[in-house]
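Researcher: Next entry in the queue.
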Amino acid sequence: MPTQKRHVFISGGTGYLGRRVIPELLSRGHSVRALARPGSEGRVSPGCETVSGDALDAASFSESVAPCDTFLQLVGVPHPSPAKAALFRSVDLASQLASVRAALDGRVKHFVYVSVAHPAPVMKAYWQAREEGEAALRASGIPATILRPWYVLGPGHRWPYLLLPGYWLFETLPGTREGARRLGLVTLDQMARALVFAVETPPPELRILEVPQIRNAAVAPA
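Model: Structure for this entry, 222 residues:
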């Protein structure tokens, strides 16, 4: 089992990553409290405490963060595309700013933020909003782990498998190797494992996990 039980507050617990990582955290003995919109409480994983609130409004849930020691921020627009540029600011960035505020109010000791790999030649509005979210987290002074995946493969998110041969080629060429690795693909299982690793091993200040570190994150046997 992990050396220390963590008490985790999750914003975005009913989403793509949240539904995968919450059962893993619970199975490893951690306690989890998940934020859910009013009416969506039934989507929270069994065994998890539910908090009703608005992820875009810190005032609606900040009093429910304590006594959690870890804040895990997973809110994001599903299936990002250039057509959703405005939502990256009104949802992704706004939820991150609200989460940082609530984490400060709750005096958490570790903030885990799923950002995105950057810079990138495409989806500029997407990664710039996440970059601003990172900046807000740094300014808060909360010890943090920032994960920077590019695309997470899993159920309903499989079309990039068609790009894998190109990734393999670009990773072998000196001129494209760094970009291909930084903007590489990770699986849902790899992300869940990396998130568990982040929760269980809080850093003293700031830690960034890029795609290669996400792929290779290891957790102690449960």
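Model: Residues 39 and 204 are 38 Å apart (CA to CA).
Researcher: Noted, moving on.
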